[in-house]
Amino acid sequence: MRRTKDRLLLLAILSMHWSMAQNKKLKLIKEISSFEKGGYQVEHLGPNCLLGDTLFIADHRRVLAFTKEGKYLYQWGNSLIFNKVTQICSGPNGTIYTLDFSSAKISKFDRWGNLLLSWRTRHIPLGIKCDQAGNVYVSEYEQIIKYDLNGKLVRKWGSHGSGEGQFDNPVGLAFDDHNYLYVADEYNYRIQKFDTAGHFQLSFDTKKYVYKPSQIAIRDTLLYAMGERFMAEFNLNGKFLRKIEFGFMNPNYSQLSVDKNNHFFLNDHNKFYHLDQDGKAIAVWGNKADDETGFRGPYGLASTEDGHLLVSDESKHLKQTTDDGLISVVPEPKGPNSVKISRMAEILVDKKKSSIYGITRYSNAVMKIFLKTGTKGLEEIERIQYPETKSNGEDFIQDICSGAKGEYYIVYPSQQKIVAIDENLVPVYHWGTPGDSCWQLKQPIAVGYFQEKVYVGDNGKIKIFDRKGKFQDCWVLPERVYAKDIKFDKSGNVYVLGCGSLFVFSQKGKLIAQQELGYVDICPYSSVHVDQRGYIYVSMEYDNKILIYELAK
Questions:
Q1: What's the CA gap between 255 and 47, in Å, rounded?
Q2: N or C terminus: which one in the chain shows less Cβ crowding within 10 Å?
Q3: Of 182, 214, 186, 213, whose CA–CA distance to 196 is shortest?
Q4: Are residues 144 and 177 in the same domain?
Q5: Could you tell me the sign of the dihedral formed by the alpha carbons of 238, 244, 247, 250, in that order?
Q6: DSSP letters for 353-422
Q7: Which structural domain, as residue segments, surrounds residue 393?
Q8: Tens digit of pLDDT for each residue in 436-482?
Q9: pLDDT at residue 163 is higher than 70
Q10: Does residue 542 lie within any of the structural domains?
Q11: In this structure, are 162 and 91 located in the same domain?
């Protein structure tokens, strides 16, 4: 009987909600990021290429431009364009090509980041390079694919094996001055040479010098093959000439570039190196978005009484935006038991009692911190925690929201329950029956509160309960995306941050607006927040920025 009712309820929900058209849109007002103060924050500086004297370095979801001395110039790209850029190369007429490993996509840009062309490959791409005519060569697990300037397939060659013209994980590609293609055949421990029609020319073994050559670069008559802490120099016929040691660990997926002076450009995780021809560092650079110039993985959001936005991230401080959008720093509370409020996955501000509530990202606990303003900024008076001891992996807390009567609601996904705690963090009641029916909880992640109702994001649905857990209503989200955060504006509109999209619903569950955001599905701590003015803030954890929207007709 219960199953029959659930099916009928679900059919009614689907026919009611998705037959209604959206009548509003989310208008982007501004982006707040590290770049407004001339800084930059990176996740992984790695793939790189030279275009004239400008060095372009990919950081998974963006491309940053530098001088060869490490001076930051500009950047372009975001999660809407990229998922994970693992290779990059320059082409004719000032073009840049990117290889997106996760989405199997090749994209062509001008040097300023304007998208000119994109296409997808059939299989997972590993390496990319352009010849002198602008044709694009892409290496896959066991073959090389050649495309023309418009992304049209010209030819492909290769198969899995160790014979001539066969490959086992070819990654690095390079062209010499005569337009011959060299392929780093990683698991065959060799370099192979081809003409542009794919005809085999020669190969030479590198195992004695570079065990698994994954990245190569050519300058004039010299070929450089990347090792873990060194590179090997060969002539173009495969004769070993010398070893160039640089002394730090270089990940196998890092690209190697070499300029006309035989200077090298490569990375060591979040640091980038410009080396001379003997491997000595000329310039080293890395993160510039330090504690006072930008965000470092922002996730928790909350508003202050003066309308400023508080942002918790991975740095040592709590950040806030000023009216002009720039970033300032709120010092962390001082004291022997101070918790790193900057690492709270969700933060709530109790304006009346000058306290901050939040879920700490690593200890999986709810913290309430009583604060006062001292001569050196915020100072901690007292701190309480729920639960009192650190939780184990089975008890982690995913989200928190405040109710109207001083209570707080927290989500335990693995236990499939919602727990209500009072202002002293003492549990008062809880609910949750395991299951996927509308009145049950299967994988609750997000929770929100508005006008005596508790909204729970659970397995592609929004489930609504009263304050004590009595089931009220259920909505099915578009494409059953997972709700990561739930917030409300003064009118009662419901803002749901899903996997890659922000949805706005009316109180009756009508979808009234939707905004594509990109790859938020891999950012588990991204958040949405609505302030008293109705501005909507979305933290983009891996893009290191905050998006600001308003709801407009």
A1: 5
A2: N
A3: 182
A4: yes
A5: negative
A6: TTEEEEEETTT--EEEEEEEEETTEEEEEEEEEESSS---GGG----EEE-TTS-EEEEETTTTEEEEE-
A7: 2-28+290-552
A8: 899 999 989 899 999 999 999 998 999 999 999 999 999 999 877 88
A9: yes
A10: yes
A11: yes
